Amino acid sequence: MKFLICVLCCVMSVSAFGAQNKPIEVKVFIAGMFEIGANQGDKPGEFQHWFERYFIDAQSMDVAGALTPVFCNKNGVCGSVLGMGKVASSSSMQAIILNSQFDFSQSYFMISGVGGIPPSQGTIADVNWGSWLIDYDLGHRWMPDEGEPGAAVFMPRQGYEDIRVYQINPALVNLAVSLTKDASLKDSASAQAYRMRYPEPQARRKPRVTVGTHIAGDTFFHGPGLSAEAQYISELYGADDYMIAEMEGVAIAQVLSRTLGTDRVLSLRGAVNFDQGNPHETTLAHLDPAPGETAGGFAETVDNIVIVGGRVVDHIVTHWADFRDGYALK
User: Fold this and answer.
1) Is 65 left (phi over 0), alpha (psi -120 to 50) or beta?
2) Which entry of 39, 72, 97, 308 is 20 to 30 Å from 232 by CA?
3) What distance in Å separates the CA atoms of residue 263 and residue 44, rounded to the nearest whole number?
4) Which stretch is the leader sequence (predicted)?
5) Domain for residue 304, yes or no?
């Protein structure tokens, strides 16, 4: 009898241990790139509004190799700040994906952050769904005066065809756009005034939800010349028009492609600056503005990102039976 009791106790202990250590089944993972200070209570960066919406009472877990802890709520929504740039963000993402505390086998990933936008394509406080993710680097460049006059100064490097461009699942992008295209976005008087410095109609309009290519570079490429080059690269790779300049998306996509695949990835970026100055200022002056000359709209943009992205996160969680096995992949 004593032996049987001991066996039962051992079985119960093992079962309890297994239950406590069962990996968290992640439905949606939200990836921010930076936070200005704390996750709540101060000036928000890319993650604070996500934290306030989903993670106030969430479990916090440290992950070796990740920049910051991962937060997970009871509904299967998790998130973390990965770090800025391709190396920092992708190394954090890899560490989190490979960590045994989580089950990402059926997860959706929301790459979320800010970026720059060409004034010919959009305006400050726009929120853009990425249809393609492109690496601005992985090529050869030279000074314009060292090539043919007026010709492009970029040539793709051979051998990187599979990692320099990723198309986001079109069905998932179309769903995200349909769920959010009528979202009421925030704006500000300072952003409205700043827009008027630009002559382009797209730059002067009110913010809205758009879709297009996100191009990531570790260098902060800027100015009309490099903006045109980014568009050239998009066309060269057969992608949609270049809409957002950022620093991480394609690197995170590469990590996911090696581990889980990219069919469940979304990229959402808010435009906090134009990628070039207005016709009356130099590129350097635009990069290093005088006091009072900085673009407005940052606070409204990071709020808009979550207003838009939160609709999709909530939709996936609410209709999990339709998404568990992969949207439009069944």
Assistant:
1) left
2) 308
3) 30
4) 1-18
5) yes
SS3 12: helix
| Residue 192 in domain | yes
Q: At what angle do helices 170-180 and 298-318 cross, to 10 degrees?
A: 110
Domain that holds residue 76: 25-321
Q: What residues does 195 pair with on adjacent strands?
A: none
* Per-residue tokens: 153: 């100064």
Q: Return the structure tokens found at 104.
A: 């990402």
CATH number, domain of 294, equals: 3.40.50.1580
Over residues 35-46, the pLDDT tens digits come to: 999 999 999 999
What is the rounded distance in angstroms from the CA atom of residue 255 to the CA atom of residue 81?
16
DSSP string, 285-315: HHHSPPTT-S---HHHHHHHHHHHHHHHHHH
Residue-wise pLDDT tens digits, 238-275: 999 999 999 999 999 999 999 999 999 999 999 999 99
Nearest to 120 by CA among 260, 224, 22: 224
Beta pairing, strands 28-32 & 70-72: unpaired
On whether residue 327 sits in a domain, the answer given is no
Element (H, E) at 213: strand 209-216
pTM: 0.91
Number of domains making up the chain: 1
Structure-token pair, residue 27: 């439905």
Residue 43: count of CB within 10 angstroms of its CB:
12
Which backbone phi and psi does 206 adopt, to 5 degrees? -75, 155
Residue 282: HSE in the Cβ half-sphere, 13 Å Cα cutoff = 4
Instruction: Enumerate the β-bridge partners of residue 13.
Output: none
| Residue 16: CA count within 13 A, CB half-sphere | 6
How far CA 219 is from CA of 226, 228, 246, in Å, comes to 11, 16, 9
